[in-house]
Structure formats: structure tokens, C-alpha cells
Amino acid sequence: MEIAQKKRLIKFKDKSFSCSTSVAMELIGGKWKSVILIYLLTGKKRYNELYKLISTITERTLSLQLKQLEQDGLIVRKVYTKKPPLRVEYELTAFGESLKPVLLAIAEWGTYVVAEKGEVIA
Predict the structure, then answer these.
(1) How far does the chain reach from its first CA to its final CA, in angstroms?
(2) Cα–Cα dist 121/83, whole Å
(3) Burial of 22 (0-12, 13-18, 19+ CB in 10 A)
(4) Which of 22, 34, 58, 110 is the most buried (most CB within 10 A)?
């Protein structure tokens, strides 16, 4: 794949970006978004499931990141209210599913980095 390296301006969600990588990072950048998405690759998860899986995230941060991912159309939030208790599930949209190869490549590279330069402690 050839990457265009010419000066251009991209408009996305009322913001201006200099390249398509910046647009992608607007959607999945930051410390937690890709982590949340990688856990949703295997299917629907409830809020508490995600919170337990991502041991170093705060509840507030998880909540904010889920809202942003939903606003960006990468995940969908389903609320079930027919019978108590209230149940909320999150899952990838088709747009979110399109990230699968990217997320798997990031995870694979992360595994390589840990093997080369880090250590698993728990």
C-alpha cells in the first residue's frame, strides 16, 4: 500500500486534519479506546465485564470512553429494561468491526514488544 505524502486538508466531523492517519487516531487514539475495542471483538460485553477485564481503568474513564466510541459510531449501547435489573450491553457496529485487522495488528505488535522489552507480572 502506498501512502500519499502530499499536503492536503481533510474535513471530518467539523474538524480539519492534515492526513487520514489523524482522522483514524481521532476515532481510536488515546490510551483506552483501542483496548475497549479489542475486548469487544469477541462479542457483546456488559459494563462491569469491561471494567473487570481492563484492570487499570477508572469507572469514570471507562464511561467517558464508551460514550465517545458510541458517538463515533464504533460501538452500540443496548439497554434492556423488560425485567429488572436493568441490563446494558456494548458491542461493535459494522463500522467498528471494520477495525478488526487494525486492532489485531496492534495487539500482535504489543505482544512482540512485551516479549522483547517487557515482562508479564501477573
Answers:
(1) 38
(2) 41
(3) middle
(4) 34
CB-based burial label for 48 (10 Å; 0-12, 13-18, 19+): exposed
Q: Is 13 exposed, middle or buried (0-12, 13-18, 19+ CB in 10 A)?
A: exposed
Query: Do the beta carbons of residue 103 and residue 38 sit within 8 Å?
Result: yes
d(CA 117, CA 92): 32
Which stretches within 1-122 are classed as H helix?
20-28, 33-40, 47-53, 59-71, 94-97, 100-117
| Predicted local confidence at residue 66, as pLDDT | 98
Sign of CA dihedral 85, 86, 92, 93: positive
Of the pLDDT bands very low, low, confident and very high (cuts 50, 70, 90), residue 6 is: confident
- CB under 8 Å to 99, separation ≥6 — which residues? 28, 37, 74, 92
Residues 6+ apart with CB under 8 A from 100: 41
3-class secondary-structure state, position 45? strand
